[in-house]
Specification:
Chain lengths: 113, 110
């Protein structure tokens, strides 16, 4: 049963701490993406990766970092430099080159206290 | 600049038809997506238009006019479960990134 998993569903952290959100896919997709969604706002692109060991900044990359060491995994680290980290974070993947459709994971709601 | 505009909220009754409009301005364009998102859940794909015209898929249809920078999503025979946020998103020229609108929250009442 192919899909995208994100864990955990809810995450709480203290201000000033770095936190890493996981994203795993078994769809054999080359491209993966991280979005942030705030209440009443659309999805905003943080980072994307079209191939292993390569990634590009999106519109709001400041305060975030990513890695893409494996095709299946694209973890996102929210650093203490991110001024407003509380948000709903969505990971997506696509079979870039064959289809532009992006498939989304269930999301992680991060709350920084 | 890049901008996607869609209404913030819409209301309708069960069994009715509703049209959600979306206008876009992007530097390069490679198609228009519509996604459905229930509160607290992941967006799910509804439609993709890259050529002008109407695409019909069951109760949902989507229309695109590239010359006008305009799209709409048409929902027929509305059901309570259609209450959700509907996201319009334009694909950039390179096909590497989606630019999302803020979403339209549709409330369906009985």
């Amino acid at each position: 049963d192919g899909g995208i998993t994100q864990s955990p569903k809810y995450l709480f952290r203290k201000e000033g701490q770095n936190v890493t959100l996981s994203c795993e896919q078994n769809l054999n997709h080359d491209a993966m993406y991280w979005y942030r969604q705030d209440p009443g706002q659309g999805l905003r692109l943080i980072y994307y990766s079209q191939i292993v060991n390569d990634f590009q900044k999106g519109d709001i990359a400041e305060g975030y970092s990513v890695s893409r060491e494996k095709k299946e995994s694209f973890p996102l680290t929210v650093t203490s430099a991110q001024k407003n980290p509380t948000a709903f974070y969505l990971c997506a993947s696509s079979d870039y080159g064959r289809s532009y459709e992006q498939f989304f994971g269930p999301g992680t709601r991060l709350t920084v206290l | 600049g890049q901008n996607i505009d869609q209404p913030t909220e819409m209301t309708a009754t069960e069994g009715a038809i509703v049209q959600i409009n979306c206008t876009y301005q992007t530097s390069g364009f490679n198609g228009l997506f519509w996604y459905q998102q229930h509160a607290g859940e992941a967006p799910t794909f509804l439609s993709y238009n890259v050529l002008d015209g109407l695409e019909e898929k069951g109760r949902f249809s989507s229309f695109l006019s590239r010359s006008k920078g305009y799209s709409y999503l048409l929902l027929k025979e509305l059901q309570m479960k259609d209450s959700a946020s509907y996201l319009c998103a334009a694909m950039n020229q390179a096909g590497t990134a989606l630019i999302f609108g803020k979403g339209t929250t549709l409330s369906v009442s009985s």
